[in-house]
TrEMBL record:
GO cellular component: cytosol
Protein name, per record: Mannosyl-3-phosphoglycerate phosphatase
Keyword 4Fe-4S among record annotations: no
Organism for this UniProt entry: Candidatus Pantoea floridensis
GO BP of this protein: mannosylglycerate biosynthetic process
Length: 265
């Protein structure tokens, strides 16, 4: 199956997808990134990363000003007018206070409890990147230290505060109920269609359970082989529009684009 580049929009997860899970490079995807830019195919980042992390990355990828989805869909930026935050938002601080109250019932830690150096140590990020990952606006990253069977009770406790829990590639994320990568993608699809006067065909790529809403919303989906213990099972009947890669990270990303768009020369 070969899709046309003319009316396409790529929506991609970062860690473990476009970016290598361990060293965060995207060398294997670089040929496709160049080709997409040549054909003016929009590349929409859809990640658990913060806006403070995504904006500099967009610059390095040459897509400054493109819409993007941050914090698993809790933050949606439709235009390039957004500047990277320099401190955590009030909404985030309030969320952390709610979580602090729940720590008397459940064992977990949030990113706000750690220093930049500590976050860098357990994520593999540089010190600067770790600092950017802690400039959160709408969600919190949680390291679950309790028994797995208590997650259901944690979800219920969060729901009472209008919060939800989603699983990323290696961490849990607490975010406002009703937000997520699928809902965020819908907002961006509507925004782009309004701007261009037509809807674009979407090709989504992701490797973790938190990518499922985005991969189910996209017209075509690439499930990149990942490291999560939880499998990425899509509830789609159009299985011919879904491809599961044999490779991980940017090698899997390239494999998925090769499958749907034909390999680069």
């Amino acid at each position: 199956m070969v899709l046309s580049l003319d009316s396409l929009m790529i929506v991609t997860d970062l860690d473990g997808s476009l970016l290598d899970h361990h060293d965060y490079n995207w060398d294997a995807a670089s040929e496709w990134l160049t080709r997409l830019k040549q054909h003016q195919v929009p590349l929409v980042i859809c990640s658990s990363k913060t806006a403070a992390e995504i904006i500099p990355l967009q610059k390095r990828l040459g897509i400054t000003g493109a819409p993007f989805i941050a914090e698993n869909g809790a933050r949606v930026v439709l235009s390039g007018a957004h500047t990277a935050p320099t401190e955590p938002s009030d909404a985030y601080r309030a969320l952390c206070q709610t979580l602090k109250a729940l720590q008397s019932h459940f064992r977990f830690n949030g990113f706000h409890e750690f220093s930049d150096a500590e976050v860098a140590r357990f994520t593999g990020l540089t010190l600067a990147e770790a600092s950017q990952s802690r400039l959160r606006e709408a969600s919190e990253v949680v390291l679950w230290r309790d028994d797995e069977h208590r997650l259901a009770a944690f979800r219920s406790a969060l729901a009472k505060h209008n919060l939800a829990l989603t699983q990323g590639g290696r961490f849990w994320h607490v975010m406002p109920a009703g937000s997520g990568k699928g809902m965020a993608l819908e907002q961006i699809q509507q925004h782009v269609a309004q701007q261009e006067g037509k809807a674009r065909i979407t090709l989504g790529l992701g490797d973790g359970p938190n990518d499922i809403p985005m991969l189910e919303r996209a017209d075509y989906a690439v499930v990149i082989k990942g490291f999560s213990k939880t499998p990425v099972n899509l509830q789609r009947s159009d299985t011919q529009n879904v491809y599961h890669t044999a490779h991980v990270g940017p090698h899997g990303w390239r494999e998925g684009l090769d499958y749907f768009l034909a390999p680069t020369e």
